[in-house]
Amino acid sequence: MIRVSVVGAKGRMGSHVVAAVEGAADMQLALALDAGDDLTAISPQNTDVVVEFTVPSVALGNVLTLVKQGVNVVVGTTGWTEDKLNQVSAALTEAGNPDQSVFIAPNFAISAVLADHFARVAAPYFESAEVVELHHPNKVDAPSGTAIHTAQGIAEARAAAGLGPVPDATETDGGSRGQVIDGVHVHAVRLRGLNAHEEVLFGNAGEQLTIRADSFDRISFMPGVLLAVRNVDGAGHPGLTVGLDKFLDL
Amino acid sequence: MIRVSVVGAKGRMGSHVVAAVEGAADMQLALALDAGDDLTAISPQNTDVVVEFTVPSVALGNVLTLVKQGVNVVVGTTGWTEDKLNQVSAALTEAGNPDQSVFIAPNFAISAVLADHFARVAAPYFESAEVVELHHPNKVDAPSGTAIHTAQGIAEARAAAGLGPVPDATETDGGSRGQVIDGVHVHAVRLRGLNAHEEVLFGNAGEQLTIRADSFDRISFMPGVLLAVRNVDGAGHPGLTVGLDKFLDL
Amino acid sequence: MIRVSVVGAKGRMGSHVVAAVEGAADMQLALALDAGDDLTAISPQNTDVVVEFTVPSVALGNVLTLVKQGVNVVVGTTGWTEDKLNQVSAALTEAGNPDQSVFIAPNFAISAVLADHFARVAAPYFESAEVVELHHPNKVDAPSGTAIHTAQGIAEARAAAGLGPVPDATETDGGSRGQVIDGVHVHAVRLRGLNAHEEVLFGNAGEQLTIRADSFDRISFMPGVLLAVRNVDGAGHPGLTVGLDKFLDL
Amino acid sequence: MIRVSVVGAKGRMGSHVVAAVEGAADMQLALALDAGDDLTAISPQNTDVVVEFTVPSVALGNVLTLVKQGVNVVVGTTGWTEDKLNQVSAALTEAGNPDQSVFIAPNFAISAVLADHFARVAAPYFESAEVVELHHPNKVDAPSGTAIHTAQGIAEARAAAGLGPVPDATETDGGSRGQVIDGVHVHAVRLRGLNAHEEVLFGNAGEQLTIRADSFDRISFMPGVLLAVRNVDGAGHPGLTVGLDKFLDL
């Protein structure tokens, strides 16, 4: 039985995590904390894994405190820079417990993580590749961080395979060809009714491969969160691990 | 039996038209002319309808000559400006034959014409609308003329229905949101293996409507060409008619 | 200001209707009744339009009572047979008020209603047509009533246009070609994560037209319900009207 | 420079192979043979690799002869049974040349091979999975062999991961739920204008993953054929190899 505490338990994601943990046969909810609660109430005496879903401004502090408390941490909060990640790694080293680990996921949706991975695997075999992401119209940034990551992965895989630029004879364009990220065109659609979706298109003469991930609801992140809780341990994945793909059998 | 002559008979489209006419049970091929041939060989004595598929630089001259020859003309060549269309209308008026008519289609693909029409009909009922067009990477312009036309139709229908701007909270965008045509975002994908495709996306809270037209091959234009040949007559459609939608039962 | 009462106000759909009416600038909520409440509290003194969303076993009785009470009724409950519809029509005739009307919609999702309509309009122009519907795995019937209706509409339109059977050389099939409804193949997919979706595929040599309606959430029915409330009046649509398409500008 | 001979050089596929070999910078065409030609003209003196694209009734005989001739063989002809494959393996063993190998591909379309592979990788992570294949209406069997293979792969991966049956509450079905292959529902669409397409749908609560392979034209097989020619060698892949996935970096 994995004892799981949740930090940010009253938030939009955190409340789903509390319910998911309570519904999982191999887990039990330990502490459910939110803003203002004392994180040092969490310790190896009551908790095996903490799930942290708060806001970028407090997440680093929370994680550093939890590492000192000696528990494993699964982090769903976004906004991690190179510098912040280094501070987490350093804290783990200082803690000196080889069985302790921290896991940070930019995206817990398994479909999105698989799509991103498959895009990288497929990229070397196609002359053309483009990314279309589609989201609800309240999203303030475009394109999505997931789409940027996917485009970068495709670009790296193409470069490693010795592929040149994608074919594109466009001479006249008023902006319809999208944003070019490392040579890969990325398009962002905003549509009421949608949530978070990504489509990766690959083409050769006479053929197309399409990989699409749809997240209709944030409940779609829960299988990924539970998977992370089951895998965040120093034995299998020591230190800091970033990306749910590390916990999938790919 | 409709007697059909083809001008531009050796071209990429014209050669398909010759074959399509020969394969149609209600038509027979009269003259098949190409660059250098004398258009005045075509007359009501041998031809009911001429199909003109050449290049923009000669199409106007061809049509004016054919109108003088007294035959009906179906035109597939592109590049028609307001001024050129006026010259054709004037020539028809001067010819003075109420039974004679000219038909010009920017697009003969029935799926594309229907998609364009359906987009205009659906537009008043949705909060969001965007257009994605996808073509082979040798196309030099982006977005396609068809996509621009579709976006304009959606914008007109939204305005007529009293709808305001589409919802879009995007604050940060490096170009991924596409080209905005009359308030409608249009995205252009270029992918080896594709030919000509258009997808129109509509969204309301909780629902999406998608209309997609795929033209895999220029043979897809032939049903539209034959439909035009059967309908280009002064009785039903006097003077100059533009757009295959005029010949569909919509 | 349209005064709207809701019958079945505590139900899954009815509670959304109450919220939608309260959120509409041109409506005000009159009475919100549920099982056990007395429908005769509803009268022209307090209500212009009643929205009835209950269960098939009580809907006919509710509608007959409400017609006697002299109010217009919008019905979202399903399960209407020819006989039941006739009883409603007879009740309206007996009431003898030319300004009173009843509206019944098998489907309030505007995207689904438009897709169904577009399928019928497009059908005469394509050699092939098939329907794929996709729903959550808890649905007990397959294919959906909406898909059956769409297939029937396609079949009628094909027949009216003089089209023969769809081309199909299949000799060996263990069941993968789906259910054939009036000559149109219909396929039903059941997938966790989906709600209610329909895709209509049309094909000619070299081209495809796809029309797809996605309902992600029952909130997608609210624009259709409000549209019906605004249009259910004896002046514009006397007597009994069935189908949201009658209230759209198609 | 790889010296390539083609057997079945005048066939629909073979003629494309001849052109593809002539267009490849690292290959040169050796012999182009067709029905009636003597296969023993092919030998290591003139040929490194033979591409065999004929018909099932002669393919086994051709391959056995070519193995005796001492050359590597890439086979695109279909219709291979367990027994036939065993005869090829036995012939290779008898030939006794460790550098000689035979490669047989049920499908040379890279997009289809990748889709099939990705489906197997993704299968353990989703509650629901279904397969939809779409082909031209002249195809005589349904579902396609590729779709059957994909469904079997999904079923094996689900079983290995300990997943139970897919959720499906369907009680009433007139055939719309498709053919069930090892517990996976497979649907076959036949549409004029299409060629060969496969869509694999995975679902969890709140999310969907879709993998789609489109083959618009048989030219789409050529990159896969050239890839096989470059990889069919006894050093890297001794003996008999079946399936293009063995030559991809997956």
Automatic annotation (TrEMBL), chains A, B, C, D:
NAD(+) binds at residues 8-13, 34, 76-78, 105-108. It is found in: Cytoplasm. Residues 114-247 form the Dihydrodipicolinate reductase C-terminal domain. It catalyses: (S)-2,3,4,5-tetrahydrodipicolinate + NAD(+) + H2O = (2S,4S)-4-hydroxy-2,3,4,5-tetrahydrodipicolinate + NADH + H(+); (S)-2,3,4,5-tetrahydrodipicolinate + NADP(+) + H2O = (2S,4S)-4-hydroxy-2,3,4,5-tetrahydrodipicolinate + NADPH + H(+). The active site is at residues 135, 139. GO terms for biological process: diaminopimelate biosynthetic process; lysine biosynthetic process via diaminopimelate. It is an enzyme of class 1 (oxidoreductase). One of its GO terms (molecular function) is NADP binding. GO terms for cellular component: cytosol. Its main location: cytoplasm. Residues 2-108 form the Dihydrodipicolinate reductase N-terminal domain. Pathway: Amino-acid biosynthesis; L-lysine biosynthesis via DAP pathway; (S)-tetrahydrodipicolinate from L-aspartate: step 4/4. CDD domains: DHDPR_N. (S)-2,3,4,5-tetrahydrodipicolinate binds at residues 136, 145-146. It holds the Pfam family DapB_N. Keywords: Amino-acid biosynthesis, Cytoplasm, Diaminopimelate biosynthesis, Lysine biosynthesis, NAD, NADP, Oxidoreductase. Its EC number is 1.17.1.8. Homotetramer. Catalyzes the conversion of 4-hydroxy-tetrahydrodipicolinate (HTPA) to tetrahydrodipicolinate. Belongs to the DapB family. NCBIfam families: dapB. This is 4-hydroxy-tetrahydrodipicolinate reductase.
